[in-house]
Amino acid sequence: MTESALPVWPKLYPDTHATGWLKCHNQDFKVVEIPLSLPCGEGEHIWLEIEKNGVNTGWIAKQLAELVGVKEMDVGYAGLKDRHAITRQWFSIYLPLVRLPNGEPDFSSIEKNEDGEQIRILQVTRHSKKLRRGELLGNRFEIRLRDISYREGGDKAALERNLEAVKQGGVPNYFGEQRFGHNGGNIEAARQMLTGEASVKNRSKKSIYLSAARSLIFNEVVAARIQQQTYSQVSEDDIAAEQQLNGQAIPTAPLWGRGRLQTQGDVLALETEIAERYADICDGLEHRGLNQERRAVIAGVENFTWQWSVSDSEMAASGDPAWQGTSGDDLTLCFSLPSGYYATSVIRELLSPLEKTPAWQTDNKPRTDDKP
Q1: 222 plus 190 within the same structural domain
Q2: Do 290 and 183 sit in the same domain of this protein?
Q3: Which one from 82, 237, 280, 312 is the annotated catalytic residue?
Q4: Which domain, by its residues, includes 272?
Q5: Predicted pLDDT at 144
């Protein structure tokens, strides 16, 4: 792997030679969190279900903390949600009733935003526990891919075949490119940190780099199993995942850390070869105290449906040459994935997504992921 560049991991299904525009509008990417459990209605923690449009999770957590006068660490949420989307998720705030002589706080003020971003408080209740990272079953997605187009050798029939294949056979459970940073820069940063070439004091960055390093090893094993066509069946050398796909056991790949690999035979040989290829990263992960874990090689895509529609005319009317030559069709995908699984793994098996912010959308307003 070259510096600051990711390998090109193989797809599971044939290339459809299709492209489509992703996230032209926030409403093109909708996510609803599926909670692990619902609040009971009483306790020392306020729980809020919030729909956000155009702001990120961390910014809302900061606003909630400032509004009620607590530290940001007292605000919990199960996972980060994309800013350029419409998403629903739960937040918790540690705020015992004894601290509230005047009754429960009014959260309506955070719904007001002069910049056009939208925040809606859907529910406010209480619970006995803080909401912590990873405490969710999964997410439901509704994703609209606009202006589908086909290169030579591709057509709608090929895309339909892959849609059916994904519904039946799932997708490679790759970690998404966002895990690795711009041009895979988190991998090089992780390597330098793990080998001692660079010192990283920020806890958040340390966590990001460690996650990127483990994700790289996992993705490389998944890619090798797809190339060897050993991704779908559990052999006697494998360790199976807890979940199944269509009643069949799913093989797993390692999330690297301390401890010996429990696989055997050809599977052990494959995982060992990849670990040796990235020996500096794997050795560094072991010395950071992380333990060996396993993750399913294939992700089942639950409740998967799709619908074709005619594209909105405003894109073609924009005059942007990038929109020319398209089919005039939009494709809307609806599906659910377990916690920690990536919608991008579904999309990449269908087409090559294009992302841009058209001139008719920006109004010359800068957009960044770290500011509201």
Answers
A1: yes
A2: yes
A3: 82
A4: 171-299
A5: 97
